[in-house]
TrEMBL record:
The keyword Nucleus does not apply. The keyword Coiled coil applies. The lineage of its organism: Bacteria, Pseudomonadati, Pseudomonadota, Gammaproteobacteria, sulfur-oxidizing symbionts. PANTHER family: BLR4935 PROTEIN, OUTER MEMBRANE CATION EFFLUX PROTEIN. SUPFAM superfamilies: Outer membrane efflux proteins (OEP) (SSF56954). GO terms for molecular function: efflux transmembrane transporter activity. It comes from endosymbiont of Escarpia spicata. This is TolC family protein.
Length: 421
């Protein structure tokens, strides 16, 4: 006779005693298990090593290093000139000339290319962070949808058995036709829901393969304990300033400034000095030459103006990047706090076996203490509540990864290179 008490005291209070997925965040905020984090780190690092975008970014670093090597060499090579003329008078000359880097253009170019190399290296770090976050969220999506699919499969099995029992009881005259049809409709709905969840699982696995180039095993385990709250001692401004994406934006600004100096030096005309020696008939020839372009028609100032505008654009983009990351960091903190509190509340209500709950409902229905409508309603709500719990923990994982990404601490946490958050 426990059913009427549960039924009239409030269905939701009874359903909150159900479990959802695996144990998770606790009120003390214990750190995740090392073995689970190490497993995730191995998966992510393997995927990053073969990621085409990251390989392309590393190739860009190699190209920048090659350009830096070239920029360290002299800009101008000497020129050798030979001339022979045979008419009534035979003339032979041999000359050599050298354009002098009068304004130290080579150093200005080397500094600009070095700044570009710093940008390329920082972009690899930033891209690693982006791809790591995408991979971890994709892994969380697979784990979530696997559990939801499992629960949907259980729903189908439970309602299939219930439909068979309903047919037997209808044949015995225990329940009317309308309740039998209700059982059949519930089974049909469960089959459709299972097909939908199975399709979604296939999709998230496909998305993960596109991202990583590998198939994730079914035994993947997410950390079962995440911090209940984020440390309030972390300086948000410091985290944002040190974020790889902000570092890239700042380095791009510095590279733009270096580029201004290089272009300004490049537009200036360098002198060329030469020495020519030869012989004309019986007379020796010796000449010194000096040439320099006259920049009277085009002083190339427009090129400097263009790169100055580009530098200003890079500065504004860097400010916007900082603002965006600062907003993302605060938003991630707030969303994690909200979801973590909801998850802690869910877990604090305890856990009860799904099978025990379903068996109890079936026993009450078989004993005639519960109508078919009430039975189906509570079974559906029981399973829906469990699925909601699975989705909640999936949201907890997603917001945790968002926080690690926005704070730029994902690699530190994933690879255990420093203290826990």
């Amino acid at each position: 006779m426990s059913f009427p008490i549960c039924r009239h005291a409030g269905l939701f209070a009874c359903l909150l005693t159900l479990t959802a997925w695996t144990p998770a965040a606790n009120s003390k905020g214990q750190p995740p298990k090392d073995v689970e984090v190490q497993q995730l780190a191995a998966i992510v690092n393997h995927a990053l090593d073969s990621n085409p975008e990251i390989q392309a970014a590393k190739a860009a670093v190699g190209a920048a290093e090659a350009r830096l090597t070239g920029a360290g060499l002299p800009l101008n090579n000497p020129e050798l000139e030979m001339e022979a003329e045979h008419t009534d008078i035979s003339t032979y000359t041999l000359g050599i000339s050298q354009t002098v880097d009068w304004y130290n253009k080579q150093d200005a170019m080397e500094q600009a290319v070095r700044a570009e190399l710093n940008v390329a290296r920082a972009q690899v770090t930033a891209l690693n962070l982006v791809k790591s976050a995408e991979l971890l969220k994709a892994i969380g999506g697979i784990a979530t949808h696997q559990e939801i699919t499992t629960l949907s499969s259980r729903r189908t099995g439970i309602l299939e058995r219930f439909s068979q029992l309903a047919e037997q009881r209808h044949a015995a005259g225990d329940i009317p036709q309308v309740e039998l049809e209700l059982a059949r409709l519930s089974l049909t709905e469960a089959v459709m829901l299972y097909a939908g969840t199975g399709s979604k699982l296939i999709q998230v696995k496909s998305d993960y393969f596109s991202l990583s180039g590998q198939t994730l095993g079914d035994n993947i385990q997410l950390p079962d304990q995440l911090p209940a709250s984020l440390s309030s001692t972390l300086n948000e401004e410091t985290l944002v300033r040190n974020h790889p994406q902000v570092q890239v934006a700042q380095l791009m600004t510095q590279a733009s400034r270096q580029h201004i100096h290089a272009v300004d030096q490049e537009r200036k005309a360098d002198p060329t000095f030469g020495l020519r020696a030869g012989r004309e008939e019986s007379e020796n020839l010796l000449a010194l030459t000096f040439t320099i372009p006259l920049q009277v028609r085009n002083d190339f100032q427009s090129s400097v103006n263009a790169v100055q505008a580009e530098a200003l654009s890079a500065e504004q983009e860097a400010q916007q990047t900082y603002r965006n990351l600062f907003t993302q960091l605060r938003s991630a903190r707030q969303r994690y706090r909200l979801v973590s509190n909801a998850w802690s509340l869910w877990v604090s209500h305890g856990r009860t076996s799904l099978h025990q709950r379903i068996d109890l409902l079936e026993t009450l229905w078989q004993a005639g203490e519960m109508s078919t409508t009430d039975y189906l309603l509570q079974v559906q709500q029981t399973l829906d509540t469990q699925i909601a719990g699975v989705r909640l923990q999936g949201d907890l994982w997603s917001t945790w990864v968002d926080w690690l990404s926005a704070s730029g601490t994902l690699d530190t946490w994933l690879n255990k290179t420093s203290e826990e958050q």
